[in-house]
Specification:
InterPro entries: AAA+_ATPase (IPR003593), ABC_transporter-like_ATP-bd (IPR003439), ABC_transpr_FbpC (IPR015853), ABC_transpr_MalK/UgpC-like (IPR047641), Mo/tungstate-bd_C_term_dom (IPR008995), NA-bd_OB-fold (IPR012340), OB_MalK-like (IPR040582), P-loop_NTPase (IPR027417). With 362 residues, the protein is an alpha+beta fold. The protein is built from nine helices and 22 strands. The chain binds adenosine-5'-triphosphate.
Length: 362
C-alpha cells in the first residue's frame, strides 16, 4: 500500500480553461496516509469522481502532480499505478465462477497456481464467499457481486490503494450496513489505503477514520468524524453534516459580543476582533444538539419562541424563532415544551463558532 500525495492538483474538462468556473477541481493539496481509511464526501457534481480518476490514472490532471510514496506518477497509465477500483456497478465476469473471478487479477499477472489458490481462499474467507466459490457469478445478488468486485481488488498484494466509488448505491438497504461493516472489518485487518467516495454522510462517518469534504470542486475540510461534527471549518460542512445540520444565524459583532436579532451574546474578544477584520458575511453557528433550555438570565442565552415540536422517540426536535430566524433544537425526550411557548436557550461558547465569508474564525 502507498502514501498518496496530490500537489496543486486542478482539473478542467474544457481544453482551454478561461476562468476559475471552468475548473471541475480547484487547486488542492491532499495527502492520503498509507493504511488510512478515507471517505470523500460531497454533493453530486462536487468533483469526487474526478479526483478519484486522477488518483487511479484514468484522468490526467490539467495541473499538478500525483505522487505514490514520493514517486511522481502523474504521467503513469492506470496499469502502472496498481490501484484497485470498485465502481457503483460491480465489474465481474458473469461466465466465470466466483473463484475464477477472484483469481483473474492474479492469473493475469502470471502468479503460480498454488499461490493463487491460497490468496483466493484467504480473500474469500475474509469476505464470507467461501461457500460460494464454485458458483457461477451470473444471477448472484448485488451485494455478493460487489463483494466479489472488492475481492478482486484485495486479492493482489501489490495494490497501492483501493478506491471505491459509491459502491453501495445498487445494494439493498437492508444489506447495506452489513457490507459497510464488512468493509470496515477488512480495513482493520489489512490496513490498506482506502478511499471511499460517497454523498451519504452516514456511510462516510461510520466507515472512515478521516473524511475529506468537498464542495464545488474544493476540499473544504479534512478531519475525523468528530472534528467535522464539533468544529466545522466551513458553513457548508456545518450544514451538510448532521441531521438536521448546524444552525447558521446571520449576526453582527459589537465590541466583545455577537448580536443576533438584537440579542447580545458575549464571545471571546480575540474571535470578535478577527471576525471584524476578516470581512464577508458573519454567521453564528451552533448545532441543534448543543443548544440547551435554561432559566431566564443564564449567561450566553437567548429568548426564543417555539413554533413546532416533533417527537422523534428518544429525543424531540423543536423549531424555534429567534426574531425572524428559525432555529432547530434537539431536546431530551422528557422536556415539556409546546408550540407558542417562549423559553431561553443557552449557546455554550465552547460549541459556538463564528463564520466570516463561510469560513470559521479561529
Ligand atoms: N467527462 C466530463 N466532461 C465534462 N464535464 C464533466 C465530465 N465529468 C464530470 N464533469 C463535470 O465535472 C464536475 C464534477 O463531476 P464529478 O463527476 O467529478 O462529480 P461527483 O462529485 O463525482 O458527482 P456524482 O456524485 O454525481 O458522481 C461536474 O460539474 C460534472 O458535470
Amino acid at each position: 500500500m502507498a502514501r498518496i500525495e496530490l500537489r496543486s492538483i486542478a482539473h478542467a474538462y474544457v481544453a482551454v480553461p478561461a476562468s476559475e468556473q471552468d475548473y471541475a477541481l480547484r487547486p488542492l493539496e491532499l495527502v492520503w496516509e498509507d493504511g488510512g481509511a478515507y471517505a470523500l464526501l460531497g454533493p453530486s457534481g462536487c468533483g469526487k469522481t474526478t479526483l478519484l480518476n486522477i488518483i487511479s490514472g484514468l484522468l490526467r490532471p490539467t495541473r499538478g502532480q500525483v505522487l505514490f510514496d514520493g514517486v511522481d506518477v502523474t504521467e503513469a497509465p492506470p496499469q502502472r499505478r496498481n490501484i484497485a477500483q470498485v465502481f457503483q456497478f460491480p465489474v465481474i465476469y458473469d461466465t466465470m465462477t466466483v473463484s475464477e473471478n477472484l483469481a483473474f487479477p492474479l492469473r493475469n499477472r502470471g502468479l503460480g497456481a498454488s499461490e493463487t489458490r491460497a490468496r483466493v481462499e484467504e480473500v474469500a474467507e475474509l469476505l464470507e464467499l467461501t461457500p460460494d466459490l464454485r458458483l457461477r457469478a451470473s444471477g448472484l445478488s448485488a451485494d455478493m457481486r460487489q463483494r466479489i468486485s472488492l475481492g478482486r481488488g484485495l486479492v493482489r498484494r501489490d495494490v497501492a490503494a483501493i478506491l471505491l466509488d459509491e459502491p453501495l448505491t445498487v445494494i439493498d438497504p437492508h444489506v447495506k450496513w452489513l457490507l459497510r461493516r464488512k468493509l470496515k472489518q477488512v480495513h482493520e485487518q489489512l490496513k490498506m489505503t482506502l478511499v471511499y467516495v460517497t454523498h451519504d454522510q452516514v456511510e462516510a462517518l461510520t466507515l472512515a477514520d478521516r473524511v475529506v469534504v468537498m464542495n464545488q470542486g474544493r476540499v473544504v475540510q479534512v478531519g475525523t468524524p468528530q472534528e467535522l461534527f464539533e468544529r466545522p471549518a466551513d458553513t457548508f460542512v456545518g450544514y451538510f453534516i448532521g441531521s438536521p445540520g448546524m444552525n447558521l444565524l446571520p449576526c453582527t459583532v459589537e465590541d466583545d459580543a455577537v448580536v443576533v436579532e438584537g440579542q447580545r451574546l458575549a464571545l471571546d474578544a480575540g474571535v470578535c476582533a478577527r471576525a471584524r477584520s476578516a470581512g464577508g458575511e458573519l454567521r453564528l453557528g451552533i448545532r441543534p444538539e448543543f443548544l440547551r433550555r435554561v432559566p431566564e438570565g443564564t449567561p450566553s442565552s437567548v429568548r426564543v419562541e417555539v413554533t413546532q415540536v416533533e417527537n422523534l422517540g428518544r429525543h424531540k426536535l423543536a423549531t424555534a424563532k429567534l426574531g425572524a430566524q428559525a432555529l432547530k433544537v434537539r431536546l431530551p425526550e422528557e422536556e415539556r415544551l409546546a408550540p407558542g411557548e417562549s423559553c431561553w436557550l443557552e449557546l455554550p461558547p465552547r460549541w459556538t463558532t463564528l463564520y466570516a465569508g463561510g469560513r470559521a474564525i479561529p
